[in-house]
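ok so i was messing around last nite and threw this chain in just to see what happens. nothing serious, just curious
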Amino acid sequence: MRTFSRHRLSLVAASVLTLGICHTATAGEDLFGYVKGAEAMPKEAIELYQKVTLRNDKGQGTYRGINYETELEYGVTDKFAVSGSAKFMSLDTSGLIIDGYLPKEKNIGFATSGAEVGLSYMFLSPAKDDIGLSMTASLDYDWIDVHSGQDKDTLSLDVGLQTQKYMLEGELIWVGNLGMESTYADRAPIANLPEDFDWSTDPEMELELKMGTGLSYRFAPNWFISAEVLFETEFETEIGQERWSFFAGPSLHYGSADWWATLTWLPQLSGGGEQYEGQKDTSLHLIEKTEQEVRLKVAFNF
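result:
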């Protein structure tokens, strides 16, 4: 029988196998790369996350962005948690200039790029109630544009709702997410751009809507395989709906009493909105998004 540390014990249904009790997903454990569950952190639990996201390929030239986020989350009560994170990035882009978005080739080895504070509250527990329900809110400040690597001040408020359902005594887990992010963005001017290049330095307001769902199955003790679908669309001040995209892909998760890890591949299946001149694959949005993303999450519990 697996021995769990006190702060990892949560009201999650455990399934009993012939060899004993096997590990099920516990509070704060992300089975997916992008969508989130509704189970809250236990009181006084501390979890340290490291998230690395590779954004790769815009269809032409070279585009490779890596985003790093180090987050610390603390359970204030059994329903309420707070978090803070520091963000970093690297970027390599060449052979592709996009009017209004990618003004110059850029090579950033590693740089600090932003910070975020957040909170979450669980209204219904997926272990105690028929379905779990939680709410998250975060305030995010970035000083580098993750798409172009240029100087850009952005202040974002992200609000989301999460639902979660345990089935088959915890072997099968469903989650659903709905979110909205509002952003104030202000670009810095860039010297020596071509006269006809569009690089607006007027402050902008952006509104992004996000919907996602996922299903996870425990196929062996401590191991889960998952699939998730994500839809994102963004509206901007002057042009209305700028983009939309559907993403879907698998995740592999391992969880133990003291640490867990999740690896996710999320390719873009379809997208629309603005396209850059000469874009070959017109079925995708490749100005702000890429053809695929790979994300690794690793967390340690204290």
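not much to say yet. Residues 1-23 have pLDDT under 50 and may be disordered.
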